UniProtKB/TrEMBL annotation:
Residues 787-873, 991-1224 form the Pyruvate kinase barrel domain. The lineage of its organism: Eukaryota, Viridiplantae, Streptophyta, Embryophyta, Tracheophyta. Pfam families: AMP-binding, PK. One of its GO terms (molecular function) is pyruvate kinase activity. The keyword rRNA-binding does not apply. GO terms for biological process: phenylpropanoid metabolic process. Residues 53-280, 283-347 form the AMP-dependent synthetase/ligase domain. It comes from Cocos nucifera. It is an enzyme of class 6 (ligase). This is 4-coumarate--CoA ligase. Keywords: Kinase, Pyruvate, Transferase. The keyword Transferase applies. It catalyses: (E)-4-coumarate + ATP + CoA = (E)-4-coumaroyl-CoA + AMP + diphosphate.
Length: 1227
């Protein structure tokens, strides 16, 4: 091979590894790789040195627009660009981005793009290009994944750095220069880290190559920039031109007018990718940046990417499963590359880096074939391989290259999957060729109509079949059906990457409608029933040309035409031939529905005599042609036709289409499944199946199936695919074919094959149900005593003051204790956890601890507390007469009363002598805070867990405070012994009524006087969140205290918000400190975890079994949570997502799929209080049902929370609605 030299011998395969071919390098590097260019250590040096050599050369140009039309190019010189770059660089540093930071560039090719890139290069900042065609989802992923600190979108900030002079950092060759994200042909984009050394080594190599072929670049050269700068190909080419001081002109953004840009600019060098060359009808050869380059004027290299550049070694590795052998006489295999131009790895994805980098070799995934002259031809793509239902491997790109040789088509995409035995294709036909064919065949239609013409589709399919025969393709590689799209595949519909590669998952998603339509047709073609008593030698007799229309569900997308024909037999038994075809464009829609019996009755039947006369008039030739036609159709006895159409076959077609749609959803969501932890792989797959099913309108099909006692599609949540497959099997068993092997789906098993390998996962009904219970047990623990639900109770400081409370809760059946970190502090939490674990051990009842992070919840600020006073008052009649005395609990500090006692107040008293002398019947005298003498009579002495206490009674109202002296009154006199301690302070509040105005202020803590001071014009409350004041606007609804109070924003300022109260209780609603604030219509953005959450998470890591994530909204929040959990190595910590916002509800499937990347036990809490406020009470019934349904599909346990049995807790008697509520929660 004249263009290559061998540097390593090939090796036969061993130890399960495939064979590898010899390693080659360019003949121009036979004496070693090109030497580094002196003084060139980083990408900044490329630009800096060129400015020093060529300050007045034209560098960057764009076409000016006059009256909306593109005119000539206007230019910036190298020195002018340098001056702007220094100002921009100073602005970046002024924004806080330092060396090693990450800066995004979001937009199409333009001079500002290069200026921004060079500003990053100057200061050692990682440049992260953002494709302007990727769409918001991928852009958000890249910004979050790369942790971009600043992004260039506009130029208005450039001049801020005009007068700043900053020292530039010293950079090394090994420093990262840019992180370029792949365009996402499949899955999420991957960040490719490219070092300074990679780029400058490639510059040196290409420069040496051009020198060897006498095509050296000069400063007079001109380059047209139109390929995305966000891709390495154009980036490296422009760096090379900058190094030589050459000129770069930018296109004005329309590929259709690219030729016009070329005419105006007159570039001396034009780089392209194959798709672009197709667009301008040129026959130039392909090139591939950094690896291979076609040599000038060597036409033998047409159709190849040429030999390697002089910087790399290249070898092929065999791919046995595809039949490619790197050691054969025609070496074929996966292309592997080695050299300093390679990237440094995938950003934050060491696992992916290790997959593609083995012993210094980069495995590209492309399949190449060495040509005799040493150039390389790309013939296939390893990852674009799939299997058909019989196990045949299909190399999609290889077939597309072959079918692409048909001159009548411009572009083709081929689809198949492991559940079908055939291929279908979407074709962009060549407009001129198709119109010429139409003219020759007397068809006068425009191009769009021609693409819908069945004859045109038949013609194109015939041409594809011809080339398949000519290239001797195998039978399973033949395309069986085509759809013609007059609109070329493009980036606007997200069907191509910016480098014009096909995005296969997106193509499938976009064209799924047509894929399913042709699949239904092909099902009909291959579905034949062979009846034992069918006499094929008898001629077919036409009953009627009438066409019967059977409306199908929208999943099939069209009408099925049933045409009735009959066949005469010696035994006088009539048969009906039934075949289906899709509704053509000229068919009218059918209005309403008629039963099949009604339609059959409308068909005129012929008498037996008519049949015999027609039989005698048919010749043998005609008879034989009919016999051949018979074999292509489905035959059914007439008396069985009604049952056949009603019960099995019609439903089978629909269910198969649904099944195909569900299976295809795996491919659309392959990126989620690839990153899913093995613990949740089956569950994530079922969730995707569920979502795919519920995006279809299957109401009518569900009703039809239910009418015959089969599957209800709406409730096939836990095991979607297996349930659909079981129903298909049952319908198959109902078909009137005695020869069919009948099976009964006791445990239908299906299998999932991921793209990266065949990871077989059991998706059977029983296996999926086990997964649901397994995930619940992993989070909550195993159920005890044959219970079918866990019980969670939220506790706070009261659990410390009443030591028996936690034990009584566990006895009553609670097995999860919840602590809300929005209240109390770690000292209280620690004591609660200690008491819970102690009670659990003593009672031998399991108990797990869930701690909710406070999250970024808006709350009212603190109010100054009132005096430490407690009021004791007896119950009185309306006239003021005492009905029963007030009952008070007296005990030492920490000794709480039994929960069964209903008391009016609790007093903790300090004094050992006091309790030694105290007895039943004693009278305690004291002076209350008003100076009035009052008394308490001891009525009971009760022993409790931590000692004993007393119940005292009073017939008069009294007010006590900390420090009040209690004296025992006996016949011998009064003795001052006990002192009241730890009386809680009174919590103040604002009482609000409808029509009142409330002012929310940033001011610090308000005093009691300021709350009701009319000088302020309205009651005032504080909120310490600046986001509230920055986000609301007049007219926004606002809710307080979990929706107990509603208002509307009347006005805002920097420090105040004025709210008009629109909903409150008739007597006025109380609004106190630390109450929730909700703004459901605001687009306020919160951080995933607050600084308090991170501190609390450290406590939770050492003390709790589960953590509740409050106010989670989107995938980014979930990513932050998982990062913090992983950072603390908390693989066993359960993660509970609290769904309490509309954003969380709408993003729930994505949140679950993101959380399933972690092995941690996972759960969901329906926080109905905040959720109802955020989404509306009228939506709650539907929302909670949908959450339950989605979580059921994901096999994720759900916590049914907020006000469960609240009436029972407060009054001892549950409300009737609470009983139903609990029953729903126990599901």
């Amino acid at each position: 091979m004249k263009h290559l030299v061998e540097v390593e011998k090939g090796q036969e395969g061993s130890d399960g590894r495939p064979s590898v071919g010899p390693a080659y390098r360019s003949v121009f590097a036979k004496d070693g790789f090109p030497r580094p260019i002196p003084g060139l250590n980083c990408c900044w040096d490329v630009f800096r040195m060129s400015v020093e050599r060529n300050p007045k050369n034209r560098m960057l140009g764009r076409r000016e627009f006059v009256d909306g039309k593109a005119r000539k190019y206007v230019w910036l010189t190298y020195q002018e660009v340098y001056d702007i770059v220094m100002k921009v660089g100073a602005s970046i540093l002024h924004c806080g981005v330092k060396q090693g930071g990450r800066c995004g560039i979001y937009g199409a090719n333009c001079p500002e793009w290069v200026i921004s890139m060079e500003a990053c290069n100057a200061h050692g900042i990682y440049c992260v290009p953002l494709y302007d065609t990727l769409g918001a989802g991928a852009i958000e992923f890249i910004i979050c994944h790369a942790e971009i600190q600043i992004t260039f979108v506009e130029e208005k900030k450039i001049m801020e750095g005009e007068n700043q002079q900053l020292d530039l950092p010293v950079q090394k060759k090994t420093d990262i220069c840019t992180i370029m994200y792949t365009s996402g042909t499949t899955g999420d984009p991957k960040g490719v880290m490219i070092s300074n050394e990679s780029i400058i080594t490639l510059i040196a190599g290409v420069d040496w190559l051009l020198h060897c072929v006498k095509q050296q670049l000069h400063d007079s050269d001109v380059y047209l920039s139109y390929l995305p700068l966000a891709h390495s190909f154009d980036r490296v080419i422009e760096e090379l031109f900058i190094f030589h001081g050459a000129s770069i002109g930018f296109w004005h953004g329309d590929v259709k007018l690219l030729v016009e840009d070329i005419e105006v600019l007159k570039p001396t060098v034009f780089c392209a990718v194959p798709r672009v060359l197709d667009r301008i009808y040129s026959g130039l050869t392909e090139t591939c940046a950094g690896t291979f380059v076609s040599l000038p004027n060597d036409f033998a290299m047409v159709g190849t990417v040429g030999p390697p550049v002089p910087n790399v070694d290249v070898r092929l590795e065999s791919v046995p499963e595809m039949g490619y052998d790197a050691l054969s006489s025609m070496p074929r295999g996966e292309i592997c590359i080695r050299g300093k131009t390679l990237f440094s790895g995938y950003y934050k994805r060491e696992d992916l880096t290790n997959e593609v980098m083995v012993d210094g070799w980069f495995y590209t995934g492309d399949i190449g074939e060495w040509q005799p002259d040493g150039s390389l031809k790309i013939i296939d793509r390893k990852k674009n391989i799939f299997k058909l239902s019989q196990g045949e491997y299909i190399a999609a790109e290889n077939l597309e290259n072959i079918y692409g040789l048909v001159p009548d088509i411009d572009f083709i995409w081929i689809y198949g999957n492991s559940f079908e035995s055939f291929l279908v294709a979407i074709v962009n036909p060549n407009k001129q060729s198709l119109e010429n064919w139409a003219g020759e065949n007397g068809i006068s239609e425009d191009f769009t109509a021609l693409c819908e013409n069945p004859k045109a589709k038949e013609y194109i399919l015939g041409e594809l079949t011809k080339i398949a025969n000519a290239k001797k393709l195998k039978g399973f590689e033949f395309v069986k059906a085509v759809h013609l799209d007059p609109v070329p595949f493009d980036m606007g519909r997200d069907l191509l990457t910016p480098t014009y590669k096909k995005k296969r998952p997106q193509l499938l998603k976009y064209y799924q409608h047509y894929v399913y339509r042709y699949t239904v047709v092909l099902y009909e073609a291959i579905c034949k029933v062979h009846l034992a008593d069918l006499t094929s030698s008898k001629p077919i007799v036409q009953f009627s040309p009438s066409t019967l229309r059977v409306p199908l569900n929208s999943v099939v997308s069209g009408h099925c035409h049933i045409q009735i024909q009959g066949i005469s037999k010696e035994n006088q038994r009539e048969y009906v031939k039934v075949f289906a075809k899709l509704r053509e464009n000229d068919d009218s829609e059918s209005n309403g529905r008629k039963t099949f019996e009604d339609m059959l009755d409308a068909v005129p039947h012929k008498s037996e005599c008519d049949l015999r006369s027609e039989k005698s008039s048919l010749g043998s030739t005609e008879s034989s042609s009919h016999v051949e036609e018979v074999s292509n159709y489905l035959f059914v006895p007439r008396q069985e036709l009604s049952q056949y159409l009603f019960d099995p076959e019609v439903y089978l077609h629909k269910l198969r289409a649904v099944n195909l749609h569900v299976l295809a959803s795996e491919q659309w969501n392959a990126s989620h499944l690839k990153t899913c932890h093995r613990t949740y792989l089956a569950s994530a797959t079922n969730l995707i199946h569920y979502l795919a099913l519920h995006c279809l309108d299957v109401d009518q099909l569900t009703e039809d199936l239910g009418s015959v006692g089969l599957l209800n599609l709406k409730y096939a949540n836990t095991n979607v695919l297996a349930s659909i497959t079981a129903s298909i099997q049952l319908l198959e068993n109902l078909k009137p074919d005695s020869s069919y092997k009948r099976t009964w789906p006791m445990d239908m098993r299906n299998y999932l094959t991921l793209q990266e390998g065949e990871k077989v996962t059991d998706l059977g009904i029983s296996a999926m149900r086990k997964r649901a219970s397994m995930h619940a047990a992993a989070l909550f623990g195993h159920l005890q005593e044959k219970k079918n639900a866990h019980i969670m109770v939220t506790v706070g400081r009261e659990a410390i003051t009443n030591e028996m409370l936690l034990g009584d809760l566990l006895k009553a059946g609670a097995n999860i204790i919840r602590i809300n970190c929005a209240h109390d502090d770690p000292s209280v939490w620690s004591e609660i956890i200690r008491l819970a674990k102690h009670s659990s051990q003593m009672l031998e009842k399991p108990c797990r601890i869930l701690m909710d992070l406070a999250g970024p919840k808006l709350r009212t600020g603190s109010l100054k507390t009132g005096p430490d006073v407690v009021k004791i008052a007896p119950k009185r009649t309306a006239q003021g007469n005492v009905i029963s005395p007030a009952q008070v609990w007296l005990s030492r500090t920490g000794c709480s009363h039994p929960p069964h006692l209903s008391l009016d107040a609790t007093l903790f008293v300090d004094g050992d002598r006091f309790f030694k002398e105290l007895d039943v019947g004693d009278v305690l005298k004291f002076i209350d805070v008003r100076g009035k003498w009052r008394s308490l009579t001891i009525s009971k002495k009760i022993s409790v867990f931590s000692g004993c206490g007393y119940v005292a009674e009073s017939l008069k109202t009294a007010y006590l405070e900390s420090g009040t002296k209690l004296c025992i009154q006996r016949k011998r006199g009064k003795v001052s012994i006990g002192e009241v301690v730890n009386v809680p302070a009174i919590q103040h509040f604002i009482r609000l009524r409808v029509g009142d105005l409330l002012t929310i202020t940033r001011d610090p803590r308000l005093s009691l006087e300021e709350i009701d001071d009319t000088a302020y014009g309205a009651p005032r409350i504080t909120c310490d969140s600046g986001r509230l004041f920055d986000s609301v606007k007049p007219g926004d609804p606002i809710a307080f205290d979990d929706g107990k109070i509603w208002g509307v924003v009347k006005g805002t300022s920097i420090n105040e918000i004025v709210v008009s109260i629109t909903q409150a209780s008739p007597q006025g609603s109380k609004l106190g400190a630390e109450k929730s604030i909700n703004i459901p219509k605001s687009d306020m953005h919160f951080e995933g975890l607050t600084s308090k959450d991170l501190v609390d998470l450290d406590f939770i890591a050492n003390n709790a079994d589960m953590v509740g994530i409050s106010f989670i909204r989107n995938v980014r929040d979930m990513v932050i949570v998982l990062q913090e959990v992983e950072k603390r190595n908390l693989q066993g910590l359960g993660i509970v997502m609290k769904i309490e916002t509309c954003g969380a509800f709408e993003n729930l499937p994505l949140l679950l799929l993101q959380a399933m990347q972690s092995p941690n036990p996972l759960g969901v809490m329906i926080a109905r209080g905040d959720l109802a406020v955020e989404c509306g009470w009228d939506q709650m019934a539907s929302i909670q049902e949908q959450i339950l349904s989605i979580c059921s599909a994901a096999h994720v346990p759900v916590i049914w929370a907020t006000q469960v049995l609240e009436s029972l807790t407060k009054s001892g008697i549950p409300a009737r609605s609470e009983i139903t509520d609990v029953a729903s929660g126990m599901r």
